[in-house]
Each structure stands twice: as structure tokens, then as C-alpha cells.
Design brief:
5-stranded parallel β-sheet, 11% strand, Rossmann fold, alpha/beta, 5 strands, 9 helices, single chain
């Protein structure tokens, strides 16, 4: 069983994906970490974001087993990830890795921005998780400020809006809700309610509870 979960930044898709993976005992891949890892390497090496061959090379050499989620969840890395995700050559370098993960025996849960449309369009379950920009910004602000990052609510909201625009308008695999993806708008839902709704969707689609 492949479960594809898509949505914009800070929508809570990763929380839902991890919960479903634990519930059904499936491997989970946060595909956003792949782009964050490439972005982090670009920043660490001082590379130019216009150096497409170098960035594609970083993506091709990425090891999915060595992704440090906590280290990759800073604001600057998130911004860098959004920029490298616009580059078609980087996305292409990561597609096979993601598809292989999705199609492993038994299935998997993947979350990102193009799982249901590009990576695993054959997924048995597709969910699009979203929330208002203001709600997503509030969540991201709480997360970043708890880590001691020097952010303000307004700067985080501006970053969310900028990333939404970039993700939705890029030429390569833009953020889109698959036509057969079920929507969870959790603007007014807490974490447990979002997870419960996702479990209902899986049960309805597959008969597995």
C-alpha cells in the first residue's frame, strides 16, 4: 500500500504521514528533507543557486539513510530547499530515489509536494493536507522560535507566502492537489483530529483500519 500525502509548507502533512506510517507499520519518507539536504549542502559549500550541474550532482549523490531531520529544519535551509526544488535537474535526480522508496515491497508512506501527481500517481491513497497561510505561519513560528531562531510572526508569514508562490508556479512538478486526492484542511483541526481524518480516508479507500 502506497500512501501519498501532499501539501504546502507547514501544513502538518509530515505529522499525518508519520502517524499513518506508525499505525500501518510502513516505512516513511519526508521527501522535503531531500531538498533540504541539497539546500543545506549548497549553503555549506557556498555554491551559487544558478550552478545547475553542481546542484544536480549534489542531489544525485544524496543518501536517504543519512538525513538529519532536526539539523535540516532551520529557516535558512527551508528557504534554500524551496529554491533548489525549482530546478528541474535537481528534481529529476531525486525522482528515482523517491520512486524506489515508494515501490518497495509492502509499500510506504511519502509526504511532499508532488507525491500523488509525479512520484507515485498509482498510490492507493492520496491525501492533500492544507491550512490557511496564517495558521501555517503560526505553527512554523512556534517551531522556529522554540529553537531560538531570530524570527518574527510577520517574517514567517512572508516566507510561507513566498514559498507557496514559488512551489505553485515552478515549471517542474508544481505543487498541485491530485484530482483523486482527498482534502484535509486542518486550519481549525488539532493534530489528533487531522490524524483521525486521515485514518478514516485510508480505511475508506483500502478497507484497512
Amino acid at each position: 500500500m502506497i500512501i501519498a500525502i501532499d501539501g504546502p509548507a507547514a501544513s502538518g502533512k509530515g505529522t499525518v504521514a508519520r502517524a499513518l506510517a506508525a499505525h500501518f507499520r510502513l516505512p516513511h519518507l519526508d521527501t522535503g528533507l531531500l531538498y533540504r539536504a541539497v539546500g543545506a549542502e549548497v549553503l555549506a559549500r557556498g555554491l551559487d543557486f544558478s550552478d545547475v550541474p553542481a546542484l544536480a550532482g549534489l542531489a544525485a549523490a544524496l543518501d536517504v539513510q543519512n538525513l538529519d531531520g532536526e539539523a535540516l529544519r532551520t529557516g535558512p535551509v527551508g528557504e534554500a530547499a524551496s529554491r533548489v526544488a525549482e530546478i528541474a535537474e535537481v528534481r529529476q535526480a531525486l525522482i528515482d530515489l523517491q520512486r524506489d522508496f515508494a515501490r518497495q515491497p509492502g509499500g510506504a508512506v511519502l509526504d511532499g509536494r508532488d507525491i500523488g501527481t509525479v512520484i507515485a500517481p498509482e498510490a492507493e491513497v492520496k491525501i492533500f493536507v492544507t491550512a490557511s497561510p496564517e495558521a501555517r505561519a503560526a505553527r512554523r513560528y512556534a517551531e522556529l522560535s522554540a529553537r531560538g531562531e531570530p524570527v518574527t510572526p510577520q517574517s514567517v508569514l512572508e516566507d510561507i507566502l513566498k514559498r507557496d508562490q514559488r512551489d505553485s508556479s515552478r515549471a517542474a512538478a508544481p505543487l498541485l492537489r491530485a484530482v483523486d486526492a482527498e482534502l484535509i484542511d486542518n486550519t481549525e483541526l488539532d493534530k489528533q483530529a487531522s490524524i483521525a481524518r486521515a485514518l478514516e480516508i485510508v480505511a475508506r479507500r483500502t478497507g484497512r483500519g
